[in-house]
Amino acid sequence: MSNHLNAEDATPEKSLNFIEQKLEADLAAGKHGGRILTRFPPEPNGYLHIGHAKAICVSFGLAEKYGGKTNLRFDDTNPEKESVEYVDAIRRDVRWLGFEWKGGEFYTSDYFDRLYELALQLIDDGHAYVDNQSPDEIAAQKGAPGRAGTASPFRDRAPAENRRLFEEMKRGECEEGSRVLRAKIDMAHDNMLMRDPVIYRIKFVEHHRTGKDWVIYPMYDFAHGQSDSMEQITHSLCSLEFENHRPLYNWFISTLGIYPSEQTEFARLNLNYTIMSKRKLLRLVEDGAVDGWDDPRMPTISGLRRRGYTPQAIREFAERVGVAKRNNVIDYSLLEWALRDDLNRRAPRVMAVLRPIKLTVLNYPEGETEWLPTVNNPEDEESGTREIPFGRELWMEAEDFKVEANKKWFRLAPGKTVRLKSAFIVEYVDHVVDSQGAVTEVQVNYIPNSKSGQDVSGVKAKGTLHWVEASHAVDAEVRLYDRLFMEAEPEGHDGRDYMEFVNPDSLEIVSGCKLEPSLANALEETVYQFTRLGYFTTDSKYSKPGHLVFNRAVTLKDGWKG
RNA sequence: UCCCCGAUGGUGUAAUGGUAACACACUGGUUUUUGGUACCAAUAUUUCAGGUUCGAGUCCUGGUCGGGGAACCA
Question: What architecture does CATH give domain A349-472?
Answer without folding.
Answer: Beta Barrel (2.40)
